Amino acid sequence: xxxxxxxxxxxxxxxxxxxxxxxxxxxxxxxxxxxxxxxxxxxxxxxxxxxxxxxxxxxxxxxxxxxxxxxxxxxxxxxxxxxxxxxxxxxxxxxxxxxxxxxxxxxxxxxxxxxxxxxxxxxxxxxxxxxxxxxxxxxxxxxxxxxxxxxxxxxxxxxxxxxxxxxxxxxxxxxxxxxxxxx
Length: 183
Description:
It contains eight helices and no strands. It is mainly alpha-helical. The N and C termini lie far apart (50 Å).
């Protein structure tokens, strides 16, 4: 049962990393916890430690999933919850920090608070210096924020973003290349 729990834990991570689907990740983590609760082994202390870790991780993933789904009906509450999540000590072990910042940056761009959006871009860049911002924030949003504040793209936090395409555009280009090769 421990191995099956590990499998579900890995599935949850794939849902987060590859699909940014925190709702499905919660389901997978719940399955992992169910498996661990049935596990009986030589090292019960290790099983209990893993169970505690998964419960903490699932709580944070659930908080972010709730904030995401709440955004459509109550954006301000969603923003408040995301801001609180950024203060969580073990957030990095459960949720991709860039996803939380991405939601906040998109919100402030949408509401026209470009200064706050840019401040969050800087904060994310400071927290994760090697990050490709376009992976978490739409390239058009980055460009809009920079233009609104009069910051050239090459000089601001999103510098170089014009040369880095978001994953969806890269996948579209790859698909076009495959079609061209097949013709």
